[in-house]
Amino acid sequence: MTKSISEILEELNQPFDPEDVKWLPGVFMGQGKVQALAYADPRVYIDRLNEVLGAANWGKSYNTTIATGLTKVVKQYQKENLVFP
C-alpha cells in the first residue's frame, strides 16, 4: 500500500520513546538554571526512517563549501555506506 504524504508526515512526527531521548546541558540561564537540549542517537532516526519509508526509499547527502572562490568539497553518504558498531 502506498502512503500519502500526510500519512508519512504523521508517522514521522510521532514522539520517540522517552528511553531513546538523551539530554545535554545547553545555555546557562542564570540563577543556577541551564536549558536542557534533547537529542537521540542517529540510529534512532535511521530506524524511524526505515520503519516509515522503507529501508530502500531514502538516503542523505551533504554538500560542504570550504570558502567562496576555493575548491568545493562534496561528500555524499548513502545509507548503505554507513557503518555502525
Keywords:
single chain, 85 residues, alpha+beta, two-stranded antiparallel ribbon, 4 strands, flat
Largest sheet: 2 strands, antiparallel
DSSP strand content: 35-45%
Strand order of the largest sheet: 1-2
Number of strands: 4
Kindly provide the radius of gyration, computed on alpha-carbon positions and rounded to a whole number of angstroms: 18 Å
Number of domains: 1
Determine the structural class based on helices, strands and strand pairing.
alpha+beta
Span of the ends, CA to CA: 33 Å
Ranges with pLDDT <50 over ≥5 residues?
81-85
Helix fraction by DSSP (H/I, runs of at least 4): 10-25%
Mean pLDDT reading: 80
- Annotation field: number of helices: 2
Shape: flat
N-to-C order of helices and strands: HEEHEE
What is the topology?
Layout (H helix, E strand, L loop, with lengths): L4 H8 L8 E10 L2 E8 L1 H12 L6 E6 L6 E6 L8
Antiparallel strand pairs: 1-2, 3-4
Structural summary, described in words:
Strand 3 and strand 4 form a beta hairpin. Helix content is 24%, strand content 35%. The radius of gyration is 18 Å and the shape is flat. It has one domain (5-81). The protein is an alpha+beta fold.
Summarize the structure.
This protein has 85 residues and is of the alpha+beta class. The protein contains two helices and four strands, in the order H-E-E-H-E-E.
